[in-house]
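Each letter names a residue; structure tokens follow underneath. Both lines appear below:
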Amino acid sequence: MSFKSLVTFLALTTTASAALIRRVTCPDGNVVTNGACCALFPVLTDIQANLFKGGICGEDAHSALRIAFHDAIGFSLTKNVGGGADGSIVVFGDTELAFHANGGIDDIVANQKPFIAAHNLSAGDFIQFASAVGVSNCIGAPRLDFFLGRPPPLAPAADLTVPEPFDSVTSILARFKDAGFEPIEAVALLSSHSIAAADQVDPTIPGTPFDSTPGTFDTQFFIETLLKGTAFPGTGRNPGEVMSPLQGEMRLLSDFSLARDSRTACFWQAAVGNEDAVKFAFKFEMAKLSVLGQDTSKLIDCSDVIPVPKPFTGTAHLPAGASLSDVEVSCNLFPFPTLTADPGPATSVAPV
């Protein structure tokens, strides 16, 4: 299956499920499909103003997306390792925050706990709601779905359920498979690195982005991961880090390897410049991730509370100072797109 096939499937699914739906007007004037969703608007107002600093696609938005993944991926189709997207990373933080893969998540939990306490939401609901709202602040991002009604978690997730940047491709794909995701779906979920940054890989340079446009959901991440590495952004080679092509940019070993592995390289290359396909694939896979371990028949679709992100108006490009000869093409099924480089001096990336 290609990204275009995945998007076609999504479009057919959306069309098939579309129908005239009765609307409900909330006391504050907002209109939703289910009255239970009205209670989310005060939460939305609060976190946009006080967690996301006025609706910015910054460090707190990136962190909200990170904790949503780390909480949800603690799930297995074959083993009893956790309840998935249930908020256990907050409720059982004494256990889960000690896992190596969750380094730095304690700061995110500390930032989110006051909001969870202030609003009548389960930890699982708040984590996924904040993630969807945070992503909506990023230009070009999809409008993520949100489902309300997760019960409190019953137990912590198991250790070693979150893939790490120094893991092998085989290990990473096996972990995703065990959670219900095929390789193309894993690549789609990694679109999140378009609006993400590393805090723990090199602690001396927290907030180091994975691409040159961390405030925009685009395909620059897929392009820049394929460029030849030239230097490390901080202290040098750390576990899970390889050389980056741009000053101030972090490149994870896992991303580098997935971009070049025969099982995922063509999916990776197909994403380059294909913003709409990547956006819809990410939306679809995040909807799946956000309800792992949940009985969806008991959840309420409150997706209409999530703000609509601003559209992406740019084009895929090489960063200034790079050329097509710097691209390490790993898929020969179709040619790498012809891209032009930004003018000016070599691109450098500021921390978020």
The longest helix spans residues 3-17. The radius of gyration is 20 Å. Residues 112 and 201 are 22 Å apart (CA to CA). The longest strand covers residues 24-25.
